[in-house]
């Protein structure tokens, strides 16, 4: 099956993540994810993969057995099944030539994908582009990744003469709501030495660093009183929370930061005069900087509690910077990716990712896992698009990573 046909077939399965089901602990959160998981399992079996398994959580795993005698590292590739809930996933993908300054997505609705609004589109003049009909997202995040991985496996199944080591693949659910599939993934039983997710954007992008991420829940307990006789009695928890927020460093919020600048994000505030709960996200690329931010919040909460009483804080880690796992003996993982990009004449564009992805969780679990491009742009949008050449390039990079890994010495110290 051609990679474009394969990708479009995946977009026809609605795998929108369901936030309500996810919040209730249901995984996969939507039935379409299991439908896609079962379809992929059948395709993997047809391609001759071994150890094909679909868990009740819709996590799909499979193995391409080695055809070489030497010991080589086991490489793995990951993609996620779900699509964002930001737009409809009733996708009607279409392939359009990009031969002017805009691509018509829907003539009836007057919806166009234009270079004026999206200047990066200009670099794909003359190429075929997979787009939506303007009424849904495309789902290239992350079905382009699934198609690229499956296309690479199909290549090696069709060319048994090409040497390769053992390759593992996994497709996980509900990345779009807190990386839930990766958090449930059993790295130890998977049996890979390192991995790559495919969850970046345009051709050439490569993520080998992202946030260290944490969360803080601050609870303010006040004292209610009737306002007619509240003097000296009422302790307003809403105002306590307001004062706490005002003591956060000015300018260190998402709306004021970029690049590698970290922040505190006042994400949610709920309560009344008696009790108020504040949720904060904490982000920093530096491990030391992240630790200092968490320590600052603890100290601030302790100081406020000493002044007012009724202040409690709960700090928790979400995921780590993947760069922490790519040092020392694991540096070769990035080197393999660099060589694979170079073999395909693709300039590597290292992107410090101001967010998280499945590989950050997997890396924290002991599986170094940087992030490759899919070729798509404008994720979570009706203007999401995927140049056909970029999709093919993503598959070619996966193939070359497999080839290059088979040439690596095995080192599992």
- Overall mean pLDDT stands at 96
CATH-level-2 architecture of the largest domain? 3-Layer(aba) Sandwich
| Highest-level CATH class of the largest domain | Alpha Beta
CATH topology of the largest domain: Aminopeptidase
The spatial strand order of the largest sheet comes to 1-2-8-3-9-16-10-15
Q: What is the number of domains?
A: 2
Oligomer: single chain
Structural class by SSE content: alpha+beta
Low-confidence stretches: none
Topology as H/E string? HHHEEEEEEEHEHHEEEHEEHEHEHEEH
Strand content: 15-25%
Which features does this protein show?
413 residues, alpha+beta, Aminopeptidase, Alpha-Beta Plaits, 2 domains
Task: Please give a structural write-up.
By secondary structure, the protein is an alpha+beta fold. It folds into two domains: 3-209 and 322-407, Zn peptidases (Aminopeptidase), CATH 3.40.630.10; 212-319, 2-Layer Sandwich (Alpha-Beta Plaits), CATH 3.30.70. The chain is 31% helix and 24% strand. It has eleven helices and 17 strands. The chain has helices at residues 3-11, 19-23, 31-46, 140-158, 180-184, 187-190, 237-246, 287-308, 332-343, 358-364, 388-406, and strands spanning 50-54, 60-64, 75-80, 94-97, 102-106, 111-114, 128-131, 167-172, 194-200, 205-210, 212-221, 263-271, 275-284, 311-319, 349-353, 371-373, 386-387. The strands form four sheets. Strands 1-2-8-3-9-16-10-15 form an eight-stranded mixed β-sheet, with helices on both faces. Strands 12-13-11-14 form a four-stranded antiparallel β-sheet. A hairpin with a 3-residue loop joins strand 12 (263-271) and strand 13 (275-284). Helix 9 crosses helix 11 (388-406). The longest helix has 22 residues, at 287-308. The protein is globular and about 85 Å long. The two termini are 40 Å apart. Pfam families: M20_dimer, Peptidase_M20. Its EC number is 3.4.11.4.
């Amino acid at each position: 099956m051609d990679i474009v046909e394969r990708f479009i077939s995946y977009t026809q399965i609605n795998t929108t993540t369901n936030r309500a089901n996810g919040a209730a602990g249901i995984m996969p959160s939507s039935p379409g994810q299991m439908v896609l998981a079962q379809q992929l399992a059948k395709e993997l079996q047809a391609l001759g993969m071994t150890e094909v398994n679909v868990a009740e959580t819709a996590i799909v795993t499979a193995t391409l057995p080695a055809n070489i005698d030497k010991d080589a590292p086991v490489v793995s590739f990951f993609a996620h099944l779900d699509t964002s809930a930001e737009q409809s996933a009733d996708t009607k993908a279409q392939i359009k030539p990009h031969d002017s300054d805009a691509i018509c997505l829907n003539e009836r609705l007057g919806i166009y994908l234009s270079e004026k609004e999206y200047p990066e589109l200009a670099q794909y003049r003359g190429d075929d582009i997979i787009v939506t009909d303007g009424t849904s997202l495309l789902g290239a995040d992350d079905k382009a990744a699934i198609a690229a991985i499956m296309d690479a496996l199909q290549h090696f199944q069709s060319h048994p003469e090409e040497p390769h080591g053992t390759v593992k693949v996994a497709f996980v659910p509900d990345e779009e709501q807190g990386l839930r599939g990766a958090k449930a993934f059993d790295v130890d039983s998977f049996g890979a030495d390192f991995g790559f997710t495919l969850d970046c954007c345009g051709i050439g992008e490569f993520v080998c660093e992202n946030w260290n991420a944490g969360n803080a829940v601050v609870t303010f307990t006040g004292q209610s009183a009737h306002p007619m006789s509240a003097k000296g009695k009422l302790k307003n928890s809403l105002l306590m929370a307001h004062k706490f927020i005002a003591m956060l460093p000015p300018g260190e919020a998402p709306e004021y930061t970029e690049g590698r600048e970290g922040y505190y994000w006042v994400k949610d505030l709920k309560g009344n005069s008696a009790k108020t709960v504040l949720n904060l996200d904490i982000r920093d690329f530096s491990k030391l900087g992240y630790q200092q931010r968490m320590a600052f919040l603890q100290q601030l909460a302790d100081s406020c509690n000493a002044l007012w009483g009724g202040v409690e804080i709960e700090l928790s880690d979400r995921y780590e910077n993947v760069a922490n796992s790519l040092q020392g003996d694991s540096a070769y993982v990035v080197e393999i990716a660099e060589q694979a990009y170079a073999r395909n004449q693709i300039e590597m564009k290292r992107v410090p990712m101001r967010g998280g992805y499945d590989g950050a969780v997997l890396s924290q679990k002991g599986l170094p896992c940087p992030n490759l491009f899919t070729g798509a742009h404008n994720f979570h949008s009706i203007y999401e698009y995927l140049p056909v050449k970029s999709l093919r390039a993503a598959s070619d990079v996966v193939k070359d990573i497999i080839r290059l890994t088979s040439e690596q010495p095995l080192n599992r110290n």
